[in-house]
Write a structure and sequence with these properties.
Radius of gyration: 18 Å
CATH topology of the largest domain: Rossmann fold
CATH class of the largest domain: Alpha Beta
Largest sheet: 13 strands, mixed
Structural class: alpha/beta
Helix content: 10-25%
Number of strands: 13
CATH architecture of the largest domain: 3-Layer(aba) Sandwich
Number of domains: 2
Distance between the termini: 38 Å
CATH superfamily of the largest domain: Thiamin pyrophosphokinase, catalytic domain
Shape: globular
Strand content: 35-45%
């Protein structure tokens, strides 16, 4: 299957790193409201800009007069990010990169990005959420996730349900066919020994990695 990659620019924190540049290379781009401020540092021009524009000031709007804008009322029934994702899917996206999905001043939006991403993975999409410094990879039951991480970098597996059949390979604290109770912190702060692989029989989870944090080396 041909991979059609879209980067969704969101309003959270974003630090431009080599991993971020490699992740978003050759990707089409859609901006969600104030996420447009990341376009300049990524040196990209989105093909579409959506939202109610309550977090985009006049200077930002004036900087991109040629980008197609779709305005939505503030009382809409979806976040600007969710609207941007729907537009990307309508344009053929199979892989979605949520840039600016982590950090920032709105924890509710971050949690919603996690939940939206898990739903998208269940529907067969490949999804990565990133701030440049942190990367999140949602995965669901009967799936295998492989993540390229430097040796000594930190990562955690966050269970959004009880996890059964959880196997973590190439980590300082490996697991095999493990049952992780919902809410358990057992899989927080693991250390990569290089590329990490995770498999899961049942449940929904997110691997949250800090590839530039080598404090565990």
């Amino acid at each position: 299957m041909t991979i059609s990659s879209f980067t969704i620019l969101l309003g959270g924190s974003l630090v431009v790193t080599e991993r971020l540049k490699a992740l978003t290379a050759d990707s089409r781009v859609i901006a969600a409201d104030g996420g447009m401020r990341h376009a300049a540092v990524l040196d990209v021009t989105p093909e579409l800009w959506v939202g109610d524009f309550d977090s985009s000031d006049a200077d930002l709007i004036a900087r991109y007069p040629a980008v197609e804008r779709r305005n939505y009322p503030a009382t809409k029934a979806a976040t600007d990010g969710e609207i941007a994702v729907a537009e990307a899917i309508a344009r053929g996206a199979t892989r979605l990169i949520f840039a600016g999905a982590l950090g920032g001043g709105r924890s509710d939006h971050v949690v919603q990005h996690y939940l939206n991403a898990l739903g998208l993975v269940e529907d067969g999409f490949e999804v990565v959420l990133t701030s440049g410094e942190e990367e999140a990879f949602p995965f669901v039951e009967e799936s295998e996730l492989a993540v390229e991480l430097p040796k000594g970098s930190l990562f955690s597996v966050l269970g959004f349900t009880e996890l059964t059949g959880l196997t973590i390979k190439n980590a300082r604290y490996p697991l095999r066919n493990f049952t992780l109770p919902f809410g358990s912190s057992r899989t927080i702060s693991n250390i990569a020994e290089g590329p990490v692989s995770v498999t899961l029989s049942h449940g929904r989870a997110i691997l949250l990695a800090r590839p530039y944090d080598l404090s565990g080396a």
